[in-house]
Design goal:
The protein folds into 2 domains: 82 residues, Winged helix-like DNA-binding domain superfamily/Winged helix DNA-binding domain (Arc Repressor Mutant, subunit A); 211 residues, D-Maltodextrin-Binding Protein, domain 2. The protein is 41% helix and 22% strand. The longest helix has 28 residues. It starts with a helix and ends with a helix. It has 9 helices and 11 strands. The relative contact order is 0.15. With 298 residues, it is of the alpha/beta class. The strands form 3 sheets. Strands 3, 4, 5, 6, 9, 10 and 11 form a 7-stranded mixed sheet that branches. Strands 1-2 form a two-stranded antiparallel sheet.
Amino acid sequence: MNLRDLRYLVALADTRHFGHAASKSHVSQPTLSAQIKKLEEYLGAPLVERQPRNVSLTEVGERVVARARRVLQDCDDIVELARAARDPLAGTLRVAFIPTLGPYLLPLVTPALRRKLPKLQLMLYEYQTGALLERLRAGELDVGILALGVDTEGLETRALGDEAFTLALPASHRLAKQASVRTDDLAGETLLLLEDGHCLRDQALDVCSRIDVHEAEDFRATSLETLRQMVAAGLGITLLPELATRGPFAAAKNVVARPFAKPVPHRTLGAAWRRSTTRSAAIGAICESIAAVLGARP
């Protein structure tokens, strides 16, 4: 048994397809199939159920894969530990953002990161909160930037700053004439929300939980930009994070953004990473840069 064979098995568990697993592992399908067969013979137990159009793991196969993931992550951590010892702020760092944050924060923070960390190559990803945390725990990511207040058990977290919510409404709306709004002003309004899986959906519902707001039952947006266009079409109002209303995003036609009066509803942005990470120095530098950008906003 060797690490290569364990990687083949994990690739098969991820793809449930011998051809896709071979492609992911950069080997031929016969090679991958033969090595997994040898691994089964060595262990003396079937790991894979082979059917014409379906590949699944046996019960023991599922348990072996779970252990294999931990073994492979530990091995990758050893390699990263050695690299970090040579230069902790060099190499590759896998960073993921939630969709309601990444497009609006990255243009602000990327220039500072390039100046501060010229030898650090960032591999950037975008996932909804649940998928982000799952990949973080599995070792597929080094750090996630997200809204805190979710289940981060087993992970280290650091708050980076608060982001206020603003009200986005059609330019012709009655509340557009006000300099600021209160949550009570939203009573009786139709609220447009993101689809399930976005933490912003739950946060918006929490902000409006104490008033009579009607959720648009026949509509679920997949992105903030879709929400913005629905507001422009006069189909309702929505809550947007402050960063999504600044810069080029502030010029949406027929949409105005109004701040909330105190107490201002907000979300706390933060970072999460595995406690066993070997990239603490690089993650800390990323956190410092993002916190500085968030703290410097007007």
